[in-house]
Specification:
Radius of gyration: 34 Å
Number of domains: 2
CATH architecture of the largest domain: Distorted Sandwich
CATH topology of the largest domain: Deoxyuridine 5'-Triphosphate Nucleotidohydrolase, Chain A
Order of helices and strands: EEEEHEHEEEEEEEHEEEE
Largest sheet: 10 strands, antiparallel
Length: about 260
């Protein structure tokens, strides 16, 4: 910052403040200021600085606005949006408009998501047949199939299941699945990959028992929460467009190559 307008050099070489004008009191030292016309050096300099600051701020916000206009924004779907999509566009079937929590692990519509239910169909992994888990050549001897109102997952083991609900995902939406607190506090972890734009089907659920104890999972009750992220621009190629291998899946679908 240039301070020359504020000071002048005296005979001894010392810097002393220049006199400035206060409109209500007149010149402080009784002398006239250089600028005359009742404008002081301080006021003139600060006005100049403010003009430059305003110009720079204008340039900055114009740049930010342009960048935001060229940026794709994703927002999370609210309960109102989820309800509208489920009732008018069959995004979730069957659909529970309210959280059901009395005597069960909660499921249904939440503030910014939907808690899906697990059905009574399970596939529990077993090492009885000494099969190898190979995602390119999955051996069905790796698990036993169970249909029951609840299931026990052995310690440090894993099970597959499916959702009660059938999902139809809009073209501008991507979902993420997160676990429920009740199961998470018991060491039961749910891992579900994203539902891609225009994917539809029953969800294959992956359930891990991370504890050294047997763990119980209840059918037809809540298991995990789905969050819906909406883009302000539809994707160029959707899951349906590229004919994804898990499209329209029914029941528990095993790994495909």
């Amino acid at each position: 910052m240039n301070l020359r307008p504020f000071f002048h050099r005296g005979k001894a070489g010392t810097l002393t403040p220049r006199p400035f004008f206060q409109p209500s009191l007149g010149p402080v030292s009784g002398q006239e200021t250089r600028k005359g016309d009742f404008r002081c050096q301080f006021s003139w300099c600060f006005r100049k600085m403010n003009r430059r600051a305003d110009e720079n701020a204008g340039k900055f916000f114009r740049t930010v606005n342009i960048r935001l206009q060229n940026r794709i924004v994703m927002s999370i779907g609210s309960d109102r949006w989820i309800r509208e999509q489920a009732l008018n566009h069959r995004m979730i079937e069957p659909f529970s408009e309210k959280q059901v929590a009395s005597g069960v692990i909660s499921y249904g519509l939440s503030s910014y998501g939907y808690d899906l239910r697990v059905s009574d169909e399970f596939k529990i992994f077993t090492n009885v047949n000494s099969a190898i888990i190979d995602p390119k050549a999955f051996d069905e001897r790796s698990f036993v199939s169970v249909t029951a109102p609840s299931v026990i997952i052995p310690p440090n083991s894993f099970a597959l299941a499916r959702s009660v609900e059938y999902f139809r995902i809009p073209r501008d939406v991507l979902t993420i699945c997160v676990g429920k607190s009740t199961y998470a506090r018991c060491g039961i972890i749910v891992n579900v990959t994203p539902f891609e734009p225009e994917w539809e089907g029953f969800v294959t659920l992956e359930i891990s028992n991370t504890t050294p104890l047997p763990a119980k999972v209840y059918a037809n009750e809540g298991l995990c929460q789905i969050l819906f992220f909406r883009s302000d621009e539809p994707c160029e190629v959707s899951y349906a467009d590229r004919k994804g291998k898990y499209q329209n899946q029914q029941g528990i679908v095993l790994p495909k190559l």
